[in-house]
Amino acid sequence: LAANVADRSGELDLIALDGRTLVIVEVRSSESADFENLAASVDAEKQRRITQAALRFLKRRRLRGIAVRFDVLAVVWPADDAAPGIRHYPDAFEAVGRFQMHS
Fold first, then answer.
1. In this structure, are residues 12 and 50 in contact, taking their beta carbons and an 8 Å threshold?
2. Cβ–Cβ under 8 Å, residues 21 and 69
3. Which of 1, 10, 17, 44 is most buried per CB count within 10 Å?
4. Among the listed ranges 42-46, 89-93, 98-102, which one has the minimum average pLDDT value?
């Protein structure tokens, strides 16, 4: 639905729709081949900022009562590889903060 949605706390990388669920996707990339550490770099503070940005997005769009999911997409592309490796972590974390919107 959207990419690189600007917000005062950063940006929402990707916004997609999976059935009736709005999916907020945080994209992480590195030359390292370590998918797990790359995905884990979306720490509690980053999760809080993404949650707050998602809440502001929903408020601006007047979207209420919609299911929201937070995914992480890890992209690794070591210098000696011909193509990137991509790993999708659906439902990677729940909304963080006082407004729990995850379903």
1. yes
2. yes
3. 10
4. 98-102
